[in-house]
Amino acid sequence: MAESLDNIRTVLNSIDLHDTFGELRGKMVFPSSMNWDVVTVQRSGLLDLLYQTAKDCGVDLRFGVKVTGYWESEDGAGILLENGDKVAADCVIAADGIHSRARDIITGEEPVPHETGVAIYRSHFAADIIAGQPDANWILEGVGERDTCKVYFGKNASLMIGTLGKGNYVFWALPHRDVEGLSEAWLQPADALRASECIKDWPIGKKTTAVLSRTPPGSCWNHLLTSRRPLSTWVSKGGRMIVIGDAAHPMPPNLGQGANQAIEDAAVLAICLELSGKENIPLGLRVMQELRHKRVSVVQNAAIDEMEKSFRANWDADQTEAKPNHVPHPAWVLRHDCIKHAYEEFQTVADSYLNGREYIPTNAPVDGVYDCGDDVFKSAGKPS
């Protein structure tokens, strides 16, 4: 799968940060010395690979099937389907997103949505659509083996725009404050020309809207950015059902950690089930929660707080923390090896649980504060 991922990956040297005049005000540099084992990919491409891998492994995949109920006993758990089928298993892992139907049933909690007051336009399309357009193909300059990503920060709106898949696709995302009439549903078709209205008066507006205006019909969406505050538990009382990913901890996208933390969930859960064994499924799920809950909760709360800060940002502020380019990248988040950590900590957590002792997580700040002191970009020579 590694080779397949490499074929579709997005390769960036930096993310360039601009004001609304187009002036370069900073960079997030990804130097080769950082030696990250990180792959950035288009989500649809990753889903295709995961789907094919699951098929190759013989996983029973069912689409267009509605789950109407969940159940668990001392010996197993399962789901009920709309057609009357009862599916039995050793455990149930619910990864059904921010609008999870399983969350309330499994955890007994349904947190109130945290309204950010922000919505976001999103789009991506084939780069050849603008390749022959002189006013729009500036975003393709210099791409090929490397991609590009630029962020323009303005008041009440910002624009991220660039290429994906080594120049094969153009993408853009535009967070904004015009939220009237919108819901959380991702696939709400939108008019890219209306998105352009948010930035048309920027000094750089003519240049950026030239790209947005070439967005093909049916390739633009607009939806609310909402979140939830952390749940107190992810595991059912019987210990055989668990929620993970956005079903457990939805968060705004500004820290780039929503999908990342969901993938960490899956990896750690797989290891915990491997180490607990079929005879100790409830222990495996509870250890997974202990390994993940505090870490993700700190990130989840920080993503909400940072989203609110970004719309108050000011390039001319005296304090670095108030500038738009101040996005924290703590090493405890970005350099964490969740697989190694899970193998090393599993037995410690299991012993603590079985003996009624508190476990203090080693993969998150002890005080629960999103500590940004050890910023990976600063340590790698990030420009001030």
Architecture blueprint of SSEs:
Blueprint lengths: L1 H7 E2 L3 E5 L5 E6 L10 E2 L1 H14 L10 E6 L4 E5 L4 E4 L2 E3 L7 H6 L6 E13 L22 E6 L2 E8 L4 E8 L15 H6 L7 H8 L7 E8 L13 E3 L14 H19 L4 H30 L20 H4 L3 H17 L21 H4 L5
Parallel strand pairs: 2-10, 8-14
Antiparallel strand pairs: 1-4, 2-3, 5-6, 6-7, 9-12, 9-13, 10-11, 11-12
Helix pairs in contact: 6-7, 6-9, 7-9
| Count of runs of 4 or more consecutive helical residues | 10
Order of helices and strands: HEEEEHEEEEHEEEEHHEEHHHHH
Question: What is the number of beta strands?
Answer: 14
Round the mean pLDDT to the nearest integer and report it. 90
Which word captures the global form?
globular
Residue runs with pLDDT of under 50 for 5 or more positions: 379-384
CATH class of the largest domain: Alpha Beta
Family: Belongs to the paxM FAD-dependent monooxygenase family.
Protein name: FAD-binding domain-containing protein
Keywords: FAD, Flavoprotein, Monooxygenase, Oxidoreductase
Domain FAD-binding: 41-273
How would you describe what is shown here?
The protein has helices spanning 2-8, 43-56, 102-107, 192-197, 205-212, 258-276, 281-310, 331-334, 338-354, 376-379; strands at 9-10, 14-18, 24-29, 40-41, 67-72, 77-81, 86-89, 92-94, 114-126, 149-154, 157-164, 169-176, 220-227, 241-243. With 384 residues, the protein is α+β, with helices and mostly antiparallel strands. The protein has 2 domains: 2-37 and 114-227, D-Amino Acid Oxidase, Chain A, domain 2, CATH 3.30.9.30; 251-384, no CATH class. The strands form 4 sheets. It has a 7-stranded mixed beta sheet. The chain is globular and about 65 Å long.
